[in-house]
């Protein structure tokens, strides 16, 4: 029996997404996903498949960070784009996200110990919260939809589930958000994500584009200041900022 994808979606998202997708296409996707989970190691675990939707209710969504597909290493993917569970080593792209966050808003690793200050020099800035964990659940709980365009992947095979129907499903998610009147800020990093900008037509929303944070991309993300820009866009619409 095929996995009931729409049945696994939270009710609010299911009601918004279902009218925007073809039933036959959804059935074909469900059949593919069911077979893959039954015959291969697939990430994220099935119970985490729609974690992004579960942690960020539709009515509370204020921002979207769009990734391409889940991490394909053991224990890394847990249903949130760019995020890894607590205790898992922070991947290189996410390290660059945290580096930009530190430059943008001063959120980052702890500052040097004040007791180590040399005589005659000003004391260092106050200690900041450490970023030892790559778990971004606290973003999701504030209304940040951490969405991958493709929601599953075979172990060790990046991009292996691309082109099998997830793109239609997640495009419908973006269209459902675009149909809402309250502002949503779309953070699109890298060429793949930036192509989704055309799905955002409602002038109530804001699209912030930048290069991908991957270390393989030497420019385009550093200095883009996405976090302060997102908070400004929310403030301009009378919405509370996100505590990044």
Topology summary:
Blueprint: H1 5-8, H2 11-17, H3 23-39, E1 42-43, H4 51-55, E2 63-67, H5 92-105, H6 137-140, E3 144-148, E4 153-154, H7 166-178, E5 185-189, H8 191-194, E6 206-210, H9 226-236
Parallel strand pairs: 2-3, 2-5, 5-6
Antiparallel strand pairs: 1-4
Describe the structure.
It is a single chain. β5 (185-189), α8 and β6 form a beta-alpha-beta unit. The longest helix is centred in the first third of the chain and has 17 residues, at 23-39. Helix content is 32%, strand content 10%. It has helices spanning 5-8, 11-17, 23-39, 51-55, 92-105, 137-140, 166-178, 191-194, 226-236, and strands spanning 42-43, 63-67, 144-148, 153-154, 185-189, 206-210. The chain has 244 residues and is α/β, with parallel strands linked by helices. The chain starts with a helix and ends in an 8-residue tail after the last helix. Mean pLDDT is 91; it is low at 110-118 and 124-130. A four-stranded parallel beta sheet has the order 3-2-5-6. Strands 1-4 form a two-stranded antiparallel ribbon. The chain contains nine helices and six strands, in the order αααβαβααββαβαβα.
